Amino acid sequence: MHEEALKEIARQLRQPHGEHATEVGDRMNKGNQEMNLLAINMLNAQANDVILEIGMGNGFFVKDILALAPAIHYIGCDFSEEMVKAAITYNKELIDNSQAKFFLAPADQLPFELPTFNKALTVNTLYFWDNPILVLDEIKRVLKPDGQFFIAIRPKEIMEQYPFTQYGFTMYNKAELLTLLSENGFKIIQISEEQEPDQEINGETVKVASLIVCAERA
Q1: Over the stretch 141-196, which tens digit does the pLDDT of each residue have?
Q2: Could you tell me how far CA 159 lies from the centroid of its own chain?
Q3: Least confident of 27-31, 94-98, 133-137, 178-182
Q4: Strand-by-strand arrangement of the 186-201 sheet
Q5: Distance (Å, whole) CA 48 – CA 73
Q6: Secondary structure of the chain: what % helix, strand, coil (to 5)?
Q7: In CATH, what number is assigned to the domain containing residue 181?
Q8: Contact of 124 with 211, CB cutoff 8 Å
Q9: Other CB atoms closer than 10 Å to residue 215's CB: what's the count?
């Protein structure tokens, strides 16, 4: 694949935009479905939890989070205007029922003044954080004192298989992710590593795996 095409794929995955945004959102849902559901299951959500998701895309998996327990309140933030609009459209009934809200905001500038959330979740966004320390500080700021943070990524050895990740992706292996969290105010609680079914990329079969970490404010 031509270099410019790979760069455009990387730009779209970082921040879906323009005429291809809807297609990109749908493809991310399909390619990351198992990873999202694993992370959601790991939330162990309880009734009346207030849950923040950073980078929810088009909000396809919000219904799965809200189905975990009664009276969950969900808030999603994304810095793609197209994805926020799509999430609002897709989840209109949940919004009307005051179960979900969506905001246009980058991960390092969350639009909340108080520590509001029991749990925060992000799936496949870490690669794009220009300043991960600042993002983690923001997450700590909005989590309640006993709040938990769930972060899901594909490990570096998996991401390096994809030709587009050489353009603007910062990849992490397990040790690097755990160090990042531990050195920036989080205590590791649980680690999940799962092999997923192989996927086809540009006609080639590639291995797929997920790494999900649950951490508490230290």
Answers
A1: 999 999 999 999 999 999 998 999 999 999 999 999 999 999 999 999 999 999 99
A2: 15
A3: 27-31
A4: 100-104, 73-78, 50-54, 117-123, 143-153, 204-217, 186-201
A5: 7
A6: 40, 30, 30
A7: 3.40.50.150
A8: no
A9: 25
Number of domains in the chain: 1
Domain with 91, as residue range(s), is: 3-217
For the beta carbon of residue 62, count every other beta carbon within 10 angstroms: 24
CA distance 204 to 151: 28
- How far apart (Å, rounded) are the C-alpha atoms in residues 147 and 41? 17
The tokens for 162 are 């994809």
Task: Please state, in angstroms and rounded to a whole number, the distance separating the CA atoms of residues 78 and 52.
Answer: 11
Distance CA 78, CA 111 (A): 11
Measure the CA–CA gap between 73 and 93, rounded to whole angstroms.
14
- Rounded to the nearest 10 degrees, the angle between the axes of helix 21-31 and helix 33-42 is 60
**Alpha carbon distance 56, 106 (integer Å):** 12
Please give the structure tokens belonging to residue 189: 């609680």
The H-or-E segment that residue 134 falls in is helix 132-142
**What is the pTM assigned to this prediction?**
0.95
